[in-house]
Each structure stands twice: as structure tokens, then as C-alpha cells.
Write a structure and sequence with these properties.
The chain is an all-alpha fold. The chain is built from one helix and no strands. The longest helix is centred in the middle third of the chain and has 95 residues. This is Toxin.
């Protein structure tokens, strides 16, 4: 076999191996990129869910605090109104006795 034929066969085998390695690396890279994308998308969903949960808890706490403040104010107003009413009743009884 002449030398140029051997060189041609070796060159074609090496180019086929090179093409196979390049294709394999390309496929590995694409799989890696897809895996990273899936990971970051799932992580983003988890964080968004966590943010929504925290916002809901905060809104619930704020509503509860507002309700508690309103209840305290109503109790104070009721107590103030009751004491004024008691004073008026006491004054009325005094006026009736005099």
C-alpha cells in the first residue's frame, strides 16, 4: 500500500474521531445548558412561591393588626361612652332627689 493511501486512511479516521468528539461535546454542552435552565426555572418558581407565601402572611398579619387596633378603639370608645352615660345617670338621679 502506498504511503499516501495510509496517510489518507489515517487522516479520515482521525477526522471522523474529531467530528465524533466535537458532536459529543456539543451534545453534552446542550444537555448541560438545558439542565441549568431547568434548575434555575424551578428555583425561580420556588422563590416566587415563597415570596407569595410571605406576602400573604404579611397581609394576614396586617389585617389582624388593623382588626385588633379597631377592636381596641371600639372598646375604648365603648368604655368612654359608658362612663359618660353612667355620669349622666348619676347626675339625673341627683337632680331627681333634689
Amino acid at each position: 500500500i502506498p504511503t499516501y493511501m495510509i496517510e489518507g486512511i489515517v487522516a479520515s479516521v482521525l477526522s471522523d474521531m474529531r467530528s465524533a468528539v466535537i458532536a459529543e461535546n456539543s451534545m453534552e454542552y446542550e444537555a448541560y445548558v438545558k439542565q441549568l435552565e431547568d434548575y434555575f426555572n424551578s428555583r425561580e418558581r420556588e422563590l416566587n412561591d415563597e415570596i407569595l407565601k410571605i406576602k400573604a402572611e404579611k397581609a394576614e398579619k396586617d389585617e389582624k393588626d388593623e382588626k385588633d387596633e379597631k377592636d381596641e378603639k371600639d372598646e375604648k370608645d365603648e368604655a368612654a361612652g359608658k362612663s359618660v352615660k353612667d355620669e349622666m345617670v348619676d347626675e339625673g338621679e341627683k337632680d331627681g332627689k333634689e
